[in-house]
């Protein structure tokens, strides 16, 4: 299968610690790299993961809290210093557009490349990016200011050719794509070889949902049906449920409830409060509700499950 994996750059919350960077991830889909949130320290983490800056073309910002976007202007400036020429696309709440332009006018004159801003409506579930193999959708969330998550969804792929059968029937290479698209093969004597004998089933599409800062939303699972891997913030444990409710965050148990109700295959926890020196308490809490759960940690590379 083509690569579909998550590179964790930062999984802490707002208060800096010596253990965690602020929120940021690279979503790698079929050799395309997308940056999701851009807290401070992103550039250093990209270096540590040996991710080439030039491969990043789209940035998705979930909301305008500093731990999710303070690293953006520094990264844009560095791209200019490195001689970037390709356009960088930034998808975020409309308020960031004017703010970013003023920062660039002050700090990034003669940048050498274009930064194209794409405003998104955090209250709507929309497709905001699409190419031949992928769509990216917004997931409306509930936080202290407009916030959305992002759903990366593979498009269905074509079936796999059975090379042994192609060779056996001496089918020319020029017909391979027709067979992938469902055509049978007719031999010289008129015998029809059905398509089912010439191909193997396509890989099942994978999908990844990034649910940034949000209070527990009992209805959220409805938008996540069919998602194979879910990242859901788990700032607190149930020992701090009142704080989660006060600041519109979720507990690890609540994240697991969303995963369970959505029927996802894998749950990833993150955005930990600085009060937890050992996040295993959050992991244990989530596993009481949903078994296939793991903690995110900086520099983790996590495959998206089929």
Secondary-structure blueprint of this entry?
Elements: E1 4-10, E2 24-29, E3 32-38, H1 42-48, E4 56-60, H2 72-81, E5 88-92, H3 94-107, E6 115-119, E7 127-130, E8 134-140, E9 148-154, E10 160-161, H4 163-168, H5 176-180, E11 185-186, E12 192-193, E13 199-200, E14 207-211, E15 229-233, H6 241-246, H7 252-262, E16 266-270, H8 280-287, E17 293-295, E18 301-303
Parallel strand pairs: 3-4, 4-5, 5-6, 14-15, 15-16, 16-17
Antiparallel strand pairs: 1-2, 1-18, 2-3, 7-8, 8-9, 9-14, 10-13, 11-12
Strand/helix succession: EEEHEHEHEEEEEHHEEEEEHHEHEE
| Cα-atom radius of gyration | 22 Å
Mean pLDDT: 95
Give the biggest beta sheet: 7 strands, mixed
- Globular, elongated, flat, extended or rod-shaped: what is the shape? globular
Strand content bin:
25-35%
Structural overview:
With 306 residues, this protein is of the alpha/beta class. The chain has eight helices and 18 strands. The chain has helices at residues 42-48, 72-81, 94-107, 163-168, 176-180, 241-246, 252-262, 280-287, and strands at residues 4-10, 24-29, 32-38, 56-60, 88-92, 115-119, 127-130, 134-140, 148-154, 160-161, 185-186, 192-193, 199-200, 207-211, 229-233, 266-270, 293-295, 301-303. A seven-stranded mixed sheet has the order 6-5-4-3-2-1-18. Helix 7 (252-262) runs parallel beside helix 8 (280-287). 40% of the residues are buried. The model has no long low-confidence stretch (mean pLDDT 95).
Produce a short descriptive summary:
This protein has 306 residues and is an alpha/beta fold. 22% of the residues lie in helices and 27% in strands.
């Amino acid at each position: 299968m083509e690569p579909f994996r998550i590179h964790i750059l930062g999984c802490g919350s707002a208060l800096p610690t010596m253990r965690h960077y602020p929120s940021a991830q690279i979503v790698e889909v079929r050799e395309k790299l997308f940056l999701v949130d851009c807290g401070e320290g992103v550039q250093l983490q990209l270096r540590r993961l040996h991710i080439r800056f030039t491969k990043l073309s789209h940035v998705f910002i979930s909301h305008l809290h500093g731990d999710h976007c303070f690293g953006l202007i520094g990264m844009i400036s560095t791209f200019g210093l490195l001689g970037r020429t390709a356009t960088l696309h930034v998808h975020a709440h409309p308020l960031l557009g004017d703010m970013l332009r003023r920062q660039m006018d002050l700090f990034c004159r003669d940048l050498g490349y274009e930064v194209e801003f794409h405003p998104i409506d955090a209250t709507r579930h929309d497709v905001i990016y699409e190419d031949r193999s992928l769509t990216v959708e917004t997931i409306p969330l509930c936080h202290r200011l407009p916030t959305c998550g992002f759903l990366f969804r593979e498009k269905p792929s074509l079936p796999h050719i059975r090379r042994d059968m192609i060779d056996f029937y001496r089918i020319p290479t020029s017909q391979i794509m027709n067979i992938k698209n469902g055509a049978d093969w007719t031999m010289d004597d008129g015998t029809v070889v059905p398509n089912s004998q010439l191909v193997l089933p396509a890989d099942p599409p994978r999908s990844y949902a990034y649910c940034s800062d949000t209070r527990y939303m009992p209805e959220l699972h409805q938008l996540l049906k069919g998602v194979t891997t879910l990242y859901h913030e788990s700032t607190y444990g149930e020992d701090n449920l009142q704080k989660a409710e006060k600041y519109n965050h979720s507990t690890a148990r609540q994240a697991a409830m969303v995963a369970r109700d959505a029927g996802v295959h894998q749950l990833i926890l993150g955005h930990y409060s600085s009060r937890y020196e050992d996040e295993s308490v959050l992991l244990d809490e989530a596993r009481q509700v949903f078994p296939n759960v793991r903690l995110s940690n900086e520099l983790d590379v996590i495959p998206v499950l089929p």
